[in-house]
Amino acid sequence: MSEEYNKHESAFVEEDTEIGEGTYVWHYAHVREGACIGKNCNLGKDVYVGVGVKIGDNVKIQNGVSVYQGVEVGDNVFLGPHMTFTNDGYPRAEGGWNVEKTKVEDGVSIGAHATILSGLVLGKYCMVGAGAVVTKDVPPHTLVYGNPAEVKGFVCSCGKKLERSDISYQDMDKVVFECSECGEEVEVDREVYKKKEM
Amino acid sequence: MSEEYNKHESAFVEEDTEIGEGTYVWHYAHVREGACIGKNCNLGKDVYVGVGVKIGDNVKIQNGVSVYQGVEVGDNVFLGPHMTFTNDGYPRAEGGWNVEKTKVEDGVSIGAHATILSGLVLGKYCMVGAGAVVTKDVPPHTLVYGNPAEVKGFVCSCGKKLERSDISYQDMDKVVFECSECGEEVEVDREVYKKKEM
Amino acid sequence: MSEEYNKHESAFVEEDTEIGEGTYVWHYAHVREGACIGKNCNLGKDVYVGVGVKIGDNVKIQNGVSVYQGVEVGDNVFLGPHMTFTNDGYPRAEGGWNVEKTKVEDGVSIGAHATILSGLVLGKYCMVGAGAVVTKDVPPHTLVYGNPAEVKGFVCSCGKKLERSDISYQDMDKVVFECSECGEEVEVDREVYKKKEM
């Protein structure tokens, strides 16, 4: 399959990697051994993909992003310019090194320059604002930002910010929005909804 | 003119670009087609300049900065190390992509690691502090920092922070400082001045 | 000695540099003239080391870090991915440029994406959290984070976060912890301790 992806002459792709058809690996990017990257992805300038990292299909990785060992990325994910993952909670130059896992579920968008601490799950279609520092799990379809990042709203899969007027139904357990842009029904747990009064 | 600028051997400059005399394009930088860069600029290591971007004269771009499509940069601007622009308010990997414009006026300084959201104007000679996340327009000659960035003071064109004791005149509409360093008169709107009690 | 360190083919190391045995200089890194780097260091992808910078032994510099002129780094330091130093308090594109010094003492860890303002001392074995913006000196063995960064706790040389239950002795001047992980005694000034009630 390795003939079907596109690599700029200045990028390095190590051996024993799998890269899907239609994927582009741009200037000065580096893909380490054992990495597995899906179809129709875009790896921008200076991107780094660590040893054994798995990345889904249709993932857009903007300039300067390092996807370290221990990070798993689903399909249709947007990793904004110069955002950063981590994989060690209390790093020291000396001694051992524990890789803590981070999971980025399908459809997630992470804004420019955001920082994601290690050991977290970023739920489906959540959106992390530019410059946010994410220190805990992010529930699906929430919009989070700030340092530390907090839930500030809710977003549809299509990217539209959901408003109070988009709520079509709610009960003790959940709040259901109907997106005024694309019509999709988005369900949010009531406990999560209560984090952001609308 | 293309013979008169300086490019490191490891940098890529695409065709149909204009780069002014005395400008340096350093290691691993990448200038995309249609970009127009003025005279006596400095593009540090790993800098990226997007398709069709316009940059003025005497602009210092520090290491790792991506100036994306939609960003316009005036003269005498300082873009600090690893600061980041953005150009899409609610990005998703799927679907369309709206380029929102950002304008950086003459003499602006942006500190290290600052993040500038899209669709904003950074006014003449404003200064954005290191690590700031800028979410709204920045008035001329203000100093802003924090996440989100707020007006924290006022600065002269020469870079000096202006003090209360530098105020030479004020009325209902404006406050005028006389810089104790260079003597320049700096006028600030009263509405802007009131954002930061001195 | 220059035969005994390891340099990736895509990296640039200028003349008149000293690099210790066992040190690795990885992809697209750039070491400027006069820099002096110790033994068994690791310079990750895209790292930049400025003119005349001194770096100790066993220092781990993660991807995308720029260690600018004016920064001095001790032994056993961890510089996390895409953290950034600065060296000018009020930068402007025009006019002069004052290099303000920053000292990173032995054993310090700086988290991913942290920003360190210029003219500061980061004390022995302190730990700067991911995404922090450090605007003042950091006392030894403290954990700091946030924007601006504040003292949030205390850490042992081994990386363990110290708890109230680890306090073995205190008087008017100091608080002494005994690490429950490695047994090391860690002494903190009472004035520093009082910044973070435990």
Your description of this structure?
By secondary structure, chain A is mainly beta. The first copy, chain A, has a single domain (6-157), classed as Hexapeptide repeat proteins (UDP N-Acetylglucosamine Acyltransferase, domain 1), CATH 2.160.10. In chain A, 2% of the residues lie in helices and 34% in strands. Chain A has one helix at 190-193; strands at 6-7, 12-13, 18-19, 24-25, 30-31, 36-37, 42-43, 48-49, 54-55, 60-61, 66-67, 71-73, 78-79, 84-85, 102-104, 109-110, 115-116, 121-122, 127-128, 133-134, 142-145, 150-155, 161-162, 167-170, 174-178, 185-189. Chain A has a ten-stranded mixed sheet, with no helix packed on it. In chain A, β24 and β25 form a beta hairpin. Chain A starts with 5 loop residues before the first strand and ends in a 5-residue tail after the last helix. The mean pLDDT of chain A is 94. The interface between A and B is medium-sized, with 33 and 25 residues.
